[in-house]
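User: Hi! I'm a student and our assignment asks us to look at how structure tokens line up with a sequence. Could you show me two examples?

Assistant: Happy to help. In each example below, the sequence comes first and the structure tokens follow. Example one:
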Amino acid sequence: MTFLIVLHANKHFYRLALLVFGLLLSWPTLAQPPGRILFNSDFEMPTLTPTSPSPPRQSCSPATACWYLVPESSVPGWNVVDINTTSTDVVNDLVEFWNSGFLGVPAQSGNQFIELNADRGTPVFFEICMFSGETLTWSLWHRGRSGIDQMFLAITDASNNVLSSRTISSGNTAWVNYTGTVTNTGPNGSVRFTFRPGTTASGDPTVGNFIDNIQVLGLNPLVEFAAPTYSAIENTVSRPRLLINGTIPVGGAIVTIGTAGGTATGGGTDYSFATTVNIPAGNYDGSPATSIPIGLTIVDDFLVETNETIIFNILGASIPLVVNDADCNGIIQSSTTYSVIDNDVSLLPVELIAFSGIARSNQIQLFWQTGMEKSSAHFEVLRSPDGLNWQSLGEVRAAGNSSVTQKYNFTTEVTFNQPYYLLKIVDQDGSYKYSKIIAVKTERENDSGTQTYPNPVTKGGKLHIMTATDAAQRIQIEIIDLLGVSWGKYQVANNQPTITIDAPTVVGTYLLFIFDGKTTTRHKVLVQ
């Protein structure tokens, strides 16, 4: 208790005590990249009350409002320039916080503000990520303590060249607002806003210059991948994440994701992914803590294979979000490589070494081979029109236990627009696992006997089909999107020179399937 009483009496002794008794403080260091907005702009973090255990309060007046000396590492978004320097920040210096109402001084915003003249004349700063040529608007509130206090604002680029400066003087009867604009004429990188105390009405370097509610406005939020590579074993997934830096407005934003190569096969064979990522409205600091994962599913198949890769890239983002260097490290991470580490060599009771299919006449023939089997029961053959919804076609008995190559086959009839096949490999104890999904083509694409027009077609407009076949009295027609969702099924008499159907109402690429009883033809249709 005597120790605390001495601390309350002298700021300088308190600083020394913090160095000696550093274990009393348990605030973590908060490392994050420069923001596109200022976090903790009105000094509400950390939350400080008369009962806060660390750091302890100093004197209070009234009992509900106190002042505190807080290590800078506990103040998100802000840093302190080291003593006897002009720009470095190595020592964990102190920031003086006041509760609103302490000594009769209200906060301009929220319940807390800071005094620049703390245990010494303490310059504080924050950094904003800006690109060359960008302009922002800044705003701050200043107030003297004992009378008219003076402070200096300096804005410097990543090369420490001064972009703008301002001398600010205010009395102690009210908060005064100051605003301005600054353009980064320097290189891409961190632009620093430094608040340096000047003369004070008291003449005491530890008394004066309150600041609160500092804002920077006008910069677009940024997005990029958080890392250049990701990896996980096949039966798990470590989804690539998007770094967001800045403010996403009400209504959110959308990031469009695509693939740009790799050895893995998409469409549900090795993986599937969401082509868009919704970014909710809010403030993001460009760190992994506020990052958002993309939608990714990895197929845990039963094949022994080499590790595979997927290359994802960011195709675009909705306004105001911009694809750029979100963590301000000089690298725009617009693509990332995901590695799928195969887990089947040591885990599988059945080593499936091949699975394929072929269309012959009106039949689909499936073939597969195993290199090793242990307590296997049977293989269930599944079929799907879209790779998502599956129908069982039958079972093939397994060898049970084998250390040599076993060959299997299964035959089924051709079914309109059902090109995907899958094996469910069932063990004798009832456990099971799935193979890769394979696609077996049964259609002729863009058959010369059938024409569609107009193509491209306006969304919601009329799509006309001319067919020259007379193989069936009725023709089946279906139009689906690239995710396998049906946008219309039709059965029409084959006695019309032209068949007219409604085009989908959403812009995109679609597949039009036409089945004449023997053959399916497929046409790509662009809706715009």
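Example two works the same way, sequence first and then tokens:
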Amino acid sequence: MQSLRSSTSAKILLSLKDRPLRDRYLNCGLEVPTVAVNPLRSDEMQAAPVMIVIGTPQTAAWAVRQTVVARENDECLAEPVGVVLIGDDRECDLPEPFRVLGGLDDLEIIADRLGIEEALTCVPRAMSVVAGEVRRQLEKLGLRERVLTSVSDVLRGEGEGGSSAEIDPAELLGRESRAVDASLVKKVVKDKRVLITGAGGSIGSELAKICAEHAPSELILMDRSDNALFEIDRQLRTRIPGLQIRAVLHDVVDSEATLRRFTTLHPEVVFHAAAHKHVPLMEDHPGAAIANNLFGTISVADAAMSIGSERFVMISTDKAVNPTSVMGATKRMAELYVRSLASTGSPTRFSLVRFGNVLGSACSVVPIWERQLASGGPLTVTDSRMTRYFMTIPEAAGLVIQSAAIETHEVFVLDMGEPVEILGLAKRFLDRRGFANVVDGYEPNQSDRRTRVRIELTGIRPGEKLYEELAYDAEELTETSVDGVRAWRGEDRPDQARVSQMVGEMATMRRVQEPELVIETLSKWVPIGVESVDSAVSGATIPLKKVGVSGAREDSRVTAA
């Protein structure tokens, strides 16, 4: 109750003649000045319910001013006795005689001691979790809630009863997304049996949506998550009723079952998007990363080659370049295996596509920030210097499919523009949502009067880099006929004997429970660098091992492209 008794947060200026409220404040231990600032209230005003305003410092101040304006036209309306603020900030620019009573944690005591009967809530629409918590507390205390929607929420299309308007990822990135070339997509998928692994994921589902719109003879959706598979299957059947769709609940890590599936389904075009992608999680589960990222890829690629599929496209990542994480190293191994198949003389054309982060994908920064904002903040950013390559999901998926129309290369890298500062992205995100930002260790912009949301700098997590690379220094990239798709011009391929040896040794690690042993074996074949705080800025990577699988050029960090 310290906040209630504080002279800075609990003084309320009341007329001594306003006996009912005066007595309430005296009972609550609040100071009641002897200066009368309000006229004698009428009987109707005394009968009005005792009300408080709940909101952020900015929305609460605005709501109080609105009640003052409203009472100028109708004195019978209730006047708030004070303000309860959400969040940690207790500074609020309120007109006299209104004061801050405390925070949400004080609400029960405030309501009990002041006899509060109802609350005027003005919580930003984007803070939906906080608004829900306020509503639950009011219901528990038996207080009536009156909701006041801010003008900014209304102008952003986030009025009461609606949902927060979605942020356009392209607008957040500050650049236009490339349009899909329908003729190239049709060249790849029209009248073909197309199979997509990881079809329920962010990239897999977008691949499925684009392919579905370009007349495949059959679209085969493969995923081991029944919920994700059900949802993309439902969406596509609703969207394109006449399309031949087959939903296959299957884990591609099971190589024998995968071959049986492919023999039955006989896909002509395969997009392999299934993978474990979360960097810190894979540091703790390297065996699972090897099983899914390496052996899941081997399973699907071998099955495609065995049944004579025309094309196989692996979705890779920028984290496979000079990897500093288990996830990146296992994707690098998968790249090496896929490239080794390209020299077997198989009629199946194998290729891989590398790109960085996709904005808006499941568990990427924007959905995470949305959830953090809904809970009132803070937003989390690992390091103020961190940058990432970003692309929208539709643009990335469209370019992946179009790359399959290029006949002359097997390693493709998407042009993702310039790296984006994550801290700057977080600030733009808050700005689009109508909030000001306060970054840990930095002075806030005092001239910005909007509700402030804190950005917390949490520190780099295991396996993360401050920046990412899309290609090795040894790789020579060239433009292709597809805008936004670049290709590696090198002719060197991984040595097949060494790749087979790598696969054989890694097979013994799939179910090993000691992460250190798995990582030690992994780093024998794909050098895993450690990015130090000092070297991270300059981009230096410290190699752990020097053993590679290339029959061609190689240094302490680099295997064949």
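Here is something you could point out in your write-up. The first strand starts at residue 51 and ends at 55.
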